[in-house]
Amino acid sequence: MKKASFEKIIPSEGSSFKVFYFKAPFLPYEGSWHFHPEYEIVYLPSGKGRRFIGTKISQFADGDLVLLGPNIPHNCFNVGFESDEYEQYVIQFNGQDIKEASKFFTEFNTIEKLLIDAKAGLTVTSNHKHRIGEIIKQMIGLSPLEKLLQLFRVLQEFTMVSYESLEAKQYLTLSVTNTERVRTVYKVIQDNYHTNISTRQVAQQIGMTESSFCRFFLKSTGKTFKQALTEIRIQNACNLLINTDATITNIAFDCGFNSLSLFNRLFKRIIDDTPNGYRQQYMNHLQVSFS
Predict the structure, then answer these.
(1) Same structural domain for residues 14 and 154?
(2) Cα–Cα distance between 236 and 35 in angstroms, integer?
(3) Which residues, listed in sequence order, are joined to residue 39 by a DSSP beta bridge?
(4) Do 263 and 160 reside in the same domain of the chain?
(5) CATH number for the domain harbouring residue 136
(6) Strand 34-35 relative to strand 5-6: parallel, antiparallel, unpaired?
(7) Terminus-to-terminus CA distance in the chain, angstroms?
(8) Domain boundary at 111, 134, 165, which?
(9) How remote is the C-alpha of 156 from its chain's centroid?
(10) Do residue 122 and residue 192 come from a single domain?
C-alpha cells in the first residue's frame, strides 16, 4: 500500500475543529492518500462511487455519510466518485476532547461509545444519513459556538441510528512516541509558520540533531520539513483568503513568505489556482450555493 502522508488539520480562527464544504469544480485540496489524528465526518448528499479507506475499497450509492476514526489513511471522496455534481461536507474534530468530557458529563457516554466504534470507520446506509446530513449542512455559516453545539447534535444523531463498520485499520507505522513527536513538530510549525523557522531550531526543541530530525520527519510523515512548513503556510493563507478581506500581499507576508512571487508560485503548485482565483472562486461558489 502507498505510504500515507500526515495531514495537519487547521481550524478557522476561534474554532477548535474544522468544518468545510465544497462543490465541483471548486475542489480546494487534492485527493491525496493521507491520515490525521482527528476524527472525520464526510457527507455526500447524492451520487455513487467508491471509497478508498484503509486497505478497503467499498461502494456507496445515493450519497454517503461516514465517520472515520483517527489515523485511518484515506483519499478524499472525489477520488472514485462516479456521478455528476460532486458535493461534499466535512467535519474534522479531536475526539479526545469529547472523551475527556465524558468523565465529567455522563450525557457524553453514548457519544464516547460511538467514537470507540468509529476507530475502524463506520457508515450510515439507511435514509437516516440524509436526515443527519441536513443537520451537517446547517453548520455552514454558523458562529464557532453554534457550530460546536451542532456538532454535538450530529454525534447524538449518529448514536440513534444503525451503522456499519468499514473495518479500516489505523495507520500504525508511527509508534506512540513518534506520533507525539510529529504532533510536537506540527505545533511548533503552527506557532511559528509566520517566522523564518529552520530545521535546526525545531530539531533542538525536540532534542534531536538536525540530520536525525530530517530523516525522522520524512520517514514519519512522507514529507520533508520544508514541504510541511510550506503546506501549513498555504493552508493558513487559504483560511485568510476566504475569511478576511486582507490583501494578498499582506496575507503572503503574514504567512511567512518573504516574496510575493514565491507565495504565488507555491500557492499555484499546491492549490492549483492563484490566490486571487481561489478567493474569487470561493466567493462565487458561496453565492451560487447559498443565495
Answers:
(1) yes
(2) 19
(3) 93
(4) no
(5) 2.60.120.280
(6) parallel
(7) 43
(8) 165
(9) 21
(10) no
Count of positions (residues) in the chain? 291
134 and 31 in a common domain: yes
CB 52 within 8 A of CB 74: yes
Q: Which amino acid, 137?
A: K
Structural domain of residue 84, as residue ranges? Answer: 5-165
The C-alpha cell that represents 8 in the structure block: 495537519
The residues near 148 (Cβ < 8 Å, ≥ 6 apart) are 15, 16, 17
CB 221 within 8 A of CB 6: yes
Whole-number Cα distances in Å, 258 to 188, 191, 192, 214, 252 = 20, 18, 14, 23, 8
Rounded CA-CA distance 264/275 in Å is: 7
pLDDT tens, residue order, the chain (291 aa): 455 677 888 888 789 999 988 887 666 555 577 788 899 999 999 999 988 887 677 889 999 999 999 888 888 888 888 888 889 999 999 998 888 888 888 889 999 999 999 988 999 989 999 999 999 999 998 999 999 999 999 999 999 999 999 987 665 445 555 777 888 898 898 889 999 999 999 999 989 999 999 999 988 887 899 998 998 898 888 878 877 889 999 999 999 999 999 999 999 888 778 999 888 876 765 544 433
186 and 125 within one domain? no
